[in-house]
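Protocol step 4 of 6: structure prediction from sequence.
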Amino acid sequence: MYSNPQKSKLMATNTKPRKPILPHPNNLQTTLLFVLILSIPLILLLHHSPSTTCTTKTTTTRPWSGDLRTAQFAWNRLAFVESQPPRTPLKLAVFTRKWPIGATPGGMERHALTLHTALAHRGHQVHVYTSPPTEISTAVSRELDHPPGTSTTSPQVHFHGGLPGQWRYNIAWEDFQRENQREPFDVVHSESVALPHWLARDLPNLAVSWHGIALESLESSIYQDLARKPTEPMSPSFNQSLTMVLPKVLNEIRFFKSYAHHVAISDSSGEMLRDVYQIPKSRVHVILNGVDDAEFGPDVRLGQEFRAECGVPKNATLVMGVSGRLVKDKGHPLLHEAFSKLLSQHPGVYLIVAGAGPWENRYRELGPRVVALGALPPNKLRAFYNSLDIFVNPTLRPQGLDLTLMEAMQCGKPILATRFPSIKGSIVVDDEFGYMFSPNVESLLEGLEVVVKEGPARLARRGRACRDYASSMFTARKMALAYERLFLCMKDEKFCKYPMN
């Protein structure tokens, strides 16, 4: 988990500036050279520990004071005084491509719902501008879209006109402008590029939360190709994806500066924005996502009932679990192969797979000790996590920060996850919280073997440490208070001082 200064120094010394060579789809060597040149800053970041206010024991933090805009660590580590109602109620405009209604939400939608519902409950007036949902009744639409001036403890959701599920930022922008003219917004918040930079650059009171940036996507493409077998041909889409991602990285570096304030949802992403995307430090703020700790928490009985429903016998020696979309970039080829090898050596080990995708049937083919449930509704997730001894996340996507890791920790479960900067710098920040592996089958299998060897009792102790840490860092309350303080700071500099008198 620590960087190697000598290795980083050697890499920096041996790297000479070169004129970029544009890739050609038919020239693999040229493409890989171009990838290497543009990936040098990323490689250096992989060998650099993210900034932190923590001592060796991550649960103990050093006192910190100063201007919050200078903080280069996650604001979740700080204690913000909670007052209800807040000292200065804000009028907030939120732009998000989707709002989770009528369908199972993705990570970004769940984040937006959790955050802005919490802010509305705290007394802020929250207006959400989003696309029409795919499934919604007229009654629900009227309930969500409140008339101007009405008070509510829930966000006022404004669905723009057009086809369901299709984001039309221009129409949403017109709706926003009408409300802004009636009564100006204090702060505007965009979830990633829901609000494009050519509109956002004229808003000094705007903050954008990044749930994944193109430089991280480039790293993901590289690791996905490295995960293929030696006899497996390179995917035709690999070169195509690189030729699309590389220009996007350059474009992002150019236009990201148009946004007034940036919220990174992981420590490593904050470093990239400051060091590679060249955003001034005072405009980059790290606020980790949070989950509703009233919704996710330890419940032994609930977990036992869920095991029984899934057909996991009481004499199972250890139960692992994975959830999410069952696709290649989520690392399922790695887990499928590694667990198939583990099965023959440990007859009492089970794997519960929650999610839908191309790898669902392949998991079922591994036999009765792999339980593939398909997509789980949100109200079943707590039972799922509590049925496990350990949660596994084999993702090959370094982008963002997977909410499933936080949900599992809130339920008191340790983690086995890919050793990516975002995860090791913001989630598994202490060896007690679990295990990490390199994104290949051999390393994952080694990690699985260690988990089995330690056994449920040791894993339960690790889980309690995870629960304590998650309760101090990854709650909806912690996230909402941090965003609230940022938004107040954007409106009035007196709120930028920490701690406040």
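Step 5 (inspection) to follow. The chain has 17 helices and 15 strands.
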